[in-house]
Specification:
Layout: E1 2-6, H1 10-22, E2 26-30, H2 33-43, E3 47-51, H3 59-69, E4 74-78, H4 83-91, E5 96-99, H5 104-117, E6 126-128, E7 131-134, E8 139-142, E9 148-149, H6 152-162, E10 169-170, H7 171-179, H8 184-201, E11 211-214, E12 218-221
Parallel strand pairs: 1-2, 1-3, 3-4, 4-5
Antiparallel strand pairs: 6-7, 7-8, 8-9, 10-12, 11-12
Domain OmpR/PhoB-type: 123-223
Modified residues (4-aspartylphosphate): 51
GO molecular function: phosphorelay response regulator activity; transcription cis-regulatory region binding
Length: 224
């Protein structure tokens, strides 16, 4: 498996590369956003580790560009522990994030966990009431309305919710399905994810009728 490591810090880039190579991964590297896009095109990596704070184009712009081309798993590396930054990263198409500084062992564990969670999704379309989810196109359609483009995390959340319409999916199950962990930060991020989904599929997101909250438990999809 090939991993693209993008960071403008040469020492950190070398440390990450050494750690991953010792674990048996094939590594390619880039020092900035422009070279990252070139390396992605040339090497077709299976996973991307991408620093957020790079010279233009920054990591978020590179993430959006890569996501527009490929469903490859993307893990952001960030020094800022700010919730708004994490939300922007997920909106850009990232699958996970790691805060700097981190230990090589912890990074390796997170990489392996992301690989496990990124196994190919069932590409078969899923229908629940008037909702139709197309995993291959990463789109959701409500009735005759135009399809809505979803981020990878939105797609994974909707797949889980749509296989059991009308039944509550616990927040814990969603958290483990999306990130493999259930910390307070992921719980806040999940609420933001649900908020964004409601704005995409509800006629009035302030009074959701399709993606409903089950107080104290989780969420359920009501599709008729």
């Amino acid at each position: 498996m090939r991993i693209l490591v993008v960071d403008d810090d040469a020492d950190l880039r070398a440390l990450i590369g050494f750690t991953l190579m010792q674990a048996g991964f094939d590594i390619c590297t880039a020092v900035d956003g422009e070279s990252a896009l070139q390396a992605f095109q040339q090497n077709s990596p299976d996973l991307v580790l991408l620093d957020v704070n790079m010279p233009e184009p920054n990591g978020l712009k590179v993430c959006r560009e890569i996501r527009g081309r490929s469903p490859v798993p993307i893990m952001m590396l960030t020094v800022r522990d700010v919730e708004e930054d994490l939300i922007e990263a997920f909106d850009s198409g990232a699958d996970d994030y790691v805060h700097k500084p981190f230990s090589p062992r912890a990074l390796l564990a997170r990489v392996r966990a992301l690989i496990r969670r990124s196994e190919p999704l069932d590409a078969a379309p899923v229908t629940a009431g008037q909702l139709r989810l197309d995993p291959e196109q990463r789109s959701l359609q409500f009735g005759a309305a135009p399809p809505i483009r979803l981020t990878p995390l939105e797609l994974k959340a909707m797949q889980l919710l749509m296989v059991t319409p009308g039944r509550t999916v616990t927040a814990e199950k969603l958290l483990l399905h999306l990130w493999g962990r259930a910390t307070a930060r992921e719980r806040r991020t999940l609420k933001q994810l649900i908020y964004r989904l409601r704005h995409k599929i509800e006629s009035d997101a302030s009074t959701p009728e399709v993606l409903q909250t089950t107080p104290g438990a989780g969420y359920k999809l009501v599709a008729e």
